[in-house]
């Protein structure tokens, strides 16, 4: 069953000079699938993720998530839909620096006014799964980048969203921390069945996905599926990126496995 479908999506940024960032994008993501989005810089990856995550509106086409067209909801209903059904992870972590790790993770439940005992139990459960139990009392400036991203992932997953949307979650991390973060995302995808959509430049990160979709100049270019071997999938990703073009540095293939 498809959890998410984007049908014939187009996006034109209007301004002094209008720019067509996406055209004719059709993308279906099955329940429980982990899909990567790759492509050269400026190809429209973040624009597509922003449409799917309802942060921005497509100029044409339709998005459906769990049977719902989120853009037909009222402003307040859309805010609630986003908070309940979606989880977000960004390159810059976007943690609140005055709060502890625990308070950051708890934030979505606080906004939903959940009972305190339930919140504590849920934080302990997710912190355990993400290996950050020992840092729950720390402030965000006392933790490493990898720990900060795990905290952000815990915050994104604590309310058990239907879809986790991640934009370059390993972009600020060294290869070891990046590997840890990707292993965690893959584990949560496989064990909890959370559907995930990941924008990344990093072929090693993308190789944790079930499928990678490639975008070029705002249009779908190709897609490949992971077979039995992640190493072979990684190599297929590298090969496809080199055929697509873009600067070598841009994709910075770091082999961490
Ligand atoms: N708000 C905006 N107004 C006008 N043009 C925009 C806007 N946001 C993005 N664009 C343009 O749309 C295109 C796609 O941008 P987008 O950020 O989606 O690319 P990307 O593939 O995520 O790039 P990168 O890998 O560098 O982050 C780019 O040419 C960009 O300049």
From TrEMBL:
Gene3D superfamilies: P-loop containing nucleotide triphosphate hydrolases. SMART domains: AAA. This is ATP-binding cassette domain-containing protein. It comes from Paenibacillus anseongense. Residues 4-242 form the ABC transporter domain. PANTHER family: ALPHA-D-RIBOSE 1-METHYLPHOSPHONATE 5-TRIPHOSPHATE SYNTHASE SUBUNIT PHNL, LIPOPROTEIN-RELEASING SYSTEM ATP-BINDING PROTEIN LOLD. Keywords: ATP-binding, Nucleotide-binding, Transport. One of its GO terms (molecular function) is ATP binding. Belongs to the ABC transporter superfamily. InterPro entries: AAA+_ATPase, ABC_transporter-like_ATP-bd, MacB-like_ATP-bd, P-loop_NTPase.
């Amino acid at each position: 069953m498809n959890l998410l479908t984007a049908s014939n999506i187009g996006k034109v940024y209007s301004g002094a000079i209008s720019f067509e960032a996406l055209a004719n994008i059709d993308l279906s993501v099955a329940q429980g699938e982990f899909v990567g989005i790759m492509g050269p810089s400026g190809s429209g990856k973040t624009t597509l993720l922003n449409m799917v995550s309802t942060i921005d509106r497509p100029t044409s086409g339709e998005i459906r998530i769990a049977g719902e067209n989120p853009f037909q909801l009222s402003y307040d209903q859309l805010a609630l839909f986003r908070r309940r059904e979606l989880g977000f992870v960004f390159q810059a972590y976007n943690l609140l620096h005055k709060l502890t790790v625990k308070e950051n993770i708890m934030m979505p439940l606080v906004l939903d006014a959940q009972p305190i005992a339930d919140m504590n139990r849920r934080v302990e459960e997710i912190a355990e799964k993400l290996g950050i139990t020992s840092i729950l009392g720390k402030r965000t400036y006392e933790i490493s980048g990898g720990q900060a991203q795990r905290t952000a992932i815990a915050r994104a997953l604590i309310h058990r969203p239907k879809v986790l949307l991640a934009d370059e979650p390993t972009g600020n991390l060294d290869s070891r921390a990046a590997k840890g973060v990707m292993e965690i995302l893959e584990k949560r995808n496989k064990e909890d069945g959370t559907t995930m959509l990941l924008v990344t430049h990093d072929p090693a990160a993308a190789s944790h996905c079930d499928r990678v979709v490639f975008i070029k100049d705002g249009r779908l270019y190709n897609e490949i599926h992971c077979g039995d071997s992640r190493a072979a999938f990684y190599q297929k990703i590298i090969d496809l990126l080199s055929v697509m073009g873009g600067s070598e540095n841009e994709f910075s293939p770091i082999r961490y496995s």
